[in-house]
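Quick one before lunch.
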Amino acid sequence: MKIDKIVVKIASRCNINCSYCYMYNLGDLSYKIQPKFIEDRTTEEFVKKLLLHLQKKKLQTVHIIIHGGEPLLIKKNDFVNFINRFNLIKEKGIEVIFSLQTNGILIDNEWCQLFKKNNINIGVSLDGSKQDNDTFRIDKKGDGTYHNVIKGLNVLNNNNIKIGILSVMNTKTDPVKYYDHFKSLNLKSVDILLLDANHDTKQNIFGQDLSPSEWYIKIFDKWFHDSELTYNVRFFEMIIKEILGQKQGLDSLGINENNILVLETNGDLEAVDVLKLCGDSFTKNGINIYTHEIEEIKKSELIEIYYNSGKYLPKKCLACPIQDICGGGYLPHRYSSENGFNNPSIYCNDLLKIITHIQNTVIESMPPELVSQTGISKLTYEDALKIIERNILTIPKPEYTLKLESFKKN
Ligand code: SF4
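Model of the iron/sulfur cluster complex:
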């Protein structure tokens, strides 16, 4: 496995309490035994072993995604020491790209100076307008966090730091107003994530006023035809790139390897943290940076399945005409205690509708000669379903099925 993106948990606690949070509120309690902050000696050990891995795999760039909990709970001096530990890698001529995901509430001018000095890309979590954001993104007293996040965004803007927003879908909101709200905030990009759930817990997501696909398609249509476009929407851009044959590096789409690893504050090496929604301590595997080399992550079946999740597909996805673009969806969204990971995403129908809609819209916007050069063609959702029904009859049971089902509980 070639790992070149590490999500580093520098803090294991948060200063707010979003109700949908997979870290604290969807059944995983393992954060309680994590050190509150990463220790310098853990970072030191990690950087040494990461350098060995990068050299062994001949990788020239590594992405360090600084994460929590809320990473800005760490003391600023400790943060500086954390960043400086990566000089060991830079000194060997390997590029280190830092990004940091925060709820934005603790941002001040001093933090901004540190972000600028160390070229750290900043992502802030916000779910639309005050009313929309404060449905789920609440503090520990249950109050909304919108005003405090906007204060943080203003500090970033005053320091000329371009911001990427990470938001989570909310199908109870008006999708066009949701989209328009972000236009007022001077942003570089917005990503709109599917709400995290699996087959055991999905009941609250569906049966809302709008289905996820109706909600996303309304935003896509507004964004795609927006003559005053002010920001990129990563989810849509990635789908368009995949449709046009460009492989991209999003672990929730496509069939590329997921070369991402999580480092917990105690040095544990784990698969993507959203898998915590599958059960208490689900991502724990006994692999720790103090006792293992990075190559040893292959001993973890969960990490191996996550790394190859675009290839280890259930039969329905193998029969699907858009499997190369969708890749079965995001692995945490495929889980059920009945079948383990041997399921399509809970968002299967939505992904099929969204992707075919985007494909058809993109084709309509292209000159016919360009369409024929790319070799893509229109496909309706209904025709895609018929293709799946027909193909599935002839697909044998994949040999990796047992591996996917080894995580089932029933
Ligand atoms: S749309 Fe559904 S069937 Fe097709 S690849 Fe995605 S999850 Fe699988």
